[in-house]
Every structure is written in C-alpha cells, then in structure tokens.
Amino acid sequence: MNFKKIDSQIAKLIERERERQETTLEMIPSENHTSAAVREALGSVLTDKYAEGYPGKRYYAGLEFYDKIETLCQERAKKLFGVPYVNVQPYSGSPANQAVYFALLEPGDTVMGMSLPHGGHLTHGWKVSFSGKYYNSIQYGVDKETNLLNYNEIEKLAKEVKPKLIWVGATAYPRFFNWEKFGEIADLIGAYLAADIAHIAGLIIAGVHPSPVPYVHIITTTTHKTLRGPRGGMIMVTEKGLSKDPELPKKIDKTVFPGLQGGPHENNIAAIAVCLKEASSPAFKKYGKQIIKNSKALASEILKYGFNLITGGTDNHLILIDLRNKGISGKEAQIILEKSGITINKNTIPFDPNPPFNPSGIRLGTPAITTRGMKEKEMKKIAFWINEVFSNPKSYLKVRKEVKKLCKKFPLP
Ligand SMILES: *Cc1c(COP(=O)(O)O)cnc(C)c1O
C-alpha cells in the first residue's frame, strides 16, 4: 500500500497533524492519545461491512467474526464497569444520550440536567440541543458562593418539578459527584437517574473517582476521553436499573437500532474492545492515579502564581481557571497558549458575566500529557510557562521552543 501515492494531500496533512501532536502539549481535558493497537483496529477491514442488528440477530450475511468481536466488546465492558447490560453501538456520546431520551421519554416530558454554562453538557437539556427543544428541560447549576453542586437545592427543585429523568455528569466540573445523594433524590420522586461519565470513565475504572454503579439506573459514556479509546459511545444499565425497569435493556437496544441508527461502526467497536482490554490492566490503574496526581500538582503550582481556580482546586483530571483577576480573557488565553504549543480551551465559568464566545475562563486537563508519561515535575514547568506567557505575551516564542524540547522526551504512543 502506498497511501502517499494514492492521496498525497491527505497523507501529507495527516503527517503534519501527527507532527503537531508530537511537538505540542494536548491539555484539553476531553482529549487523549490512543495506542497503536486501538488505531490499528480502527483502520482495519472491519470498516467494510454492514452489521445491522445485534450479535446472533443480524440482517446481513457474513458476520461470523463481527458477532464475536461485538460480543467480546460487550463482555469486556460489562466486566470492567460491573454492569449486567451494555450497548456498544452508539456512534458517540451525544447519540448515546439521545437514545436514552428516546427510550424513556415522550416529547414534552420533564427532564433535569446541569446547565451548560455551569459545566453540564448540551444533551442534558440545553436549549439549542434536541434535549432542550423537545423536552420540558429544567436545569440545575452550582452554588453561587462555592461553585459546588448544592444537593439540597437540587432536591428541592426535583420535588417541585418531578422530572421523569435526571442527568448527572459534566464537561467542566472539577470535583467528585455525590452519586449516592443523586440516587436518593431520584428514588424519592421515582425518576430514572442517568450518570453521564463521558469525561471520567477512565478515572472510575482506575478507581480514582467514585463509581455511580450502585446508585444510578443508566450510565452513558464516550470512549475517547479518559477511557483512551476511539471516538464512540456506550449505554449501560445497572442492577439497580434492571430492578426498577426490567425492560430497560430491550428499550435501549430497540432505540439504538432501528430507532436511531442503521449499521453499527464495527471497526469502532473492535477498537473500543481493544481499549477496554487496555483499561483492565494494572498499568491503566497507575495511569489513572497519575492523571490525578498531575492535575493536583498543576493546580497547586498554578495557585502559587495567584490564579483563581473554580472551587479552589480539583478532585479529577481537570482545572477550571477564572482569569478575571489576570486582565486576560479566555479567548486571548487560548490563542497565546496555542502559539506557545499548549492546547487548552476557553470556557465559561459559572455565572460568567462575559459571552460564551469570549468567556472569562479556561479549562485544562492532564489525561493526554499523562499518557505521554509526564509527571509532577513536568506540571511545574507547564504552570511556569502558562504564567510566563500571560504576564509577558512576547515570551511565547521562547516558551514554544521549550515546549518542543520537553515533548521530544515524551513521544506519542
Ligand atoms: C463529551 C461529552 C458528551 C458527548 O460526546 P460526543 O462524543 O462529543 O457526542 C456527552 N456528555 C458529556 C458529559 C461529555 O463530556
């Protein structure tokens, strides 16, 4: 095979992207670097065939090995997360969440989720998403004083609006979730409780974030964030979910296919199976522990330079910085850091007085740089560079050089 001969333009662009990744620090908390094994499964002949249906009940012929692969993926996910049911076909996190709505609710039903500007996800009822448009979405947020979830307020709201479904999960919340408390609230009003662990799935597997399994009915996740697999999604049902509604697995299977999707992307499913195998190794537990050590080290270094961290620190893989005392906007910060070789993203902070396209904060995380093998010592350097380019934007070229030098010592997987 000679990819470069067949399509030199795309081959060249991929090569350049590889180089960009090699020479910069990926610090967007939702991102990671996959293993060569995951990428090999993803780029295999499994992309060639249709496999509508589920293992043993397909609509197409020639699927002997596809069935074995999807079954293996399911078995690995069930074992790793400790759940009796999983669907591994959703194309990504948002379609997985959409399937949960379609399986459980009718349009107009009441649903509760964390609002996007406070750290929730679009699909948890935000107004521009299907979830806010076609359902009666009631949003909860964080406390104005502490920026933490206020469980008493959430309970009060839930009792008042009686949602049929409650979502817990976030894209920019630096603290643990109290799953047990959410479980109590949902049980009190008879609601379904869904944990969206897209960001933290890998941390849960590594045992460094509490698991929602005993307390929620349904779990959705992406497979490409801390779990470190290919882009994809999964929906799980817990024992608690089965005892509330034994029909849940059937409802979800039927909704994913034929309700929402056609043929599953089996190359993706094979790559998810590989990532689940990797995630069940002792090395992955160590990886998860190091993600947390790194983000705590980074947070404490950044604090030393007088930055304001939302909630004062972090329990997980991400840090949210309020830049208002530093005279730089989230957008400006993102641009100058990108020029320095540090990729982060601008982010709203709770109760942000500024608009979402130029918010007051930035969000940064350690999953990808921890995959490269970086530790506390490197976090110290990174915090220094971040402070340096914010204090003196002209220093970005110097920092860019130093970032490149550091990256050389920590090759991509
Ligand atoms: C990333 C994320 C999703 C959506 O995943 P996509 O793959 O981008 O559709 C859903 N929920 C949460 C909490 C997320 O962080």
UniProtKB/TrEMBL annotation:
Please tell me where this protein is predominantly located. Answer: cytoplasm
Gene3D superfamilies from the entry?
Answer: Aspartate Aminotransferase, domain 1, Type I PLP-dependent aspartate aminotransferase-like (Major domain)
Positions of the Serine hydroxymethyltransferase-like domain: 4-386
Q: Where is this site: Plays an important role in substrate specificity?
A: H224
Q: Does the keyword Cell cycle belong to this entry?
A: no
Q: Which residues carry this modification: N6-(pyridoxal phosphate)lysine?
A: K225
Example GO molecular function: methyltransferase activity
Any one of the GO BP annotations: glycine biosynthetic process from serine
**Pathway linked to the protein:** Amino-acid biosynthesis; glycine biosynthesis; glycine from L-serine: step 1/1; One-carbon metabolism; tetrahydrofolate interconversion
Query: Which keywords accompany this UniProt record?
Result: Amino-acid biosynthesis, Cytoplasm, Methyltransferase, One-carbon metabolism, Pyridoxal phosphate, Transferase
Instruction: Name the SUPFAM superfamilies for this protein.
Output: PLP-dependent transferases (SSF53383)
* UniProt-listed Enzyme Commission number(s): 2.1.2.1
- The reply to whether Acetylation figures as a keyword in the UniProt entry is no
The cofactor required is: pyridoxal 5'-phosphate
Q: Which reaction does it catalyse?
A: (6R)-5,10-methylene-5,6,7,8-tetrahydrofolate + glycine + H2O = (6S)-5,6,7,8-tetrahydrofolate + L-serine
Q: Name one GO cellular component term.
A: cytosol
* Broadest EC class assigned to this enzyme: transferase
Q: Where in the cell is it found?
A: Cytoplasm
Q: Which residues bind (6S)-5,6,7,8-tetrahydrofolate?
A: L116, G120, H121, L122
| Assembly with partners or alone | Homodimer.
Q: What does this protein do?
A: Catalyzes the reversible interconversion of serine and glycine with tetrahydrofolate (THF) serving as the one-carbon carrier. This reaction serves as the major source of one-carbon groups required for the biosynthesis of purines, thymidylate, methionine, and other important biomolecules. Also exhibits THF-independent aldolase activity toward beta-hydroxyamino acids, producing glycine and aldehydes, via a retro-aldol mechanism.
Q: Which family does it belong to?
A: Belongs to the SHMT family.
The name this protein carries in UniProt is Serine hydroxymethyltransferase
Identify the species of origin: Candidatus Nealsonbacteria bacterium CG08_land_8_20_14_0_20_36_22
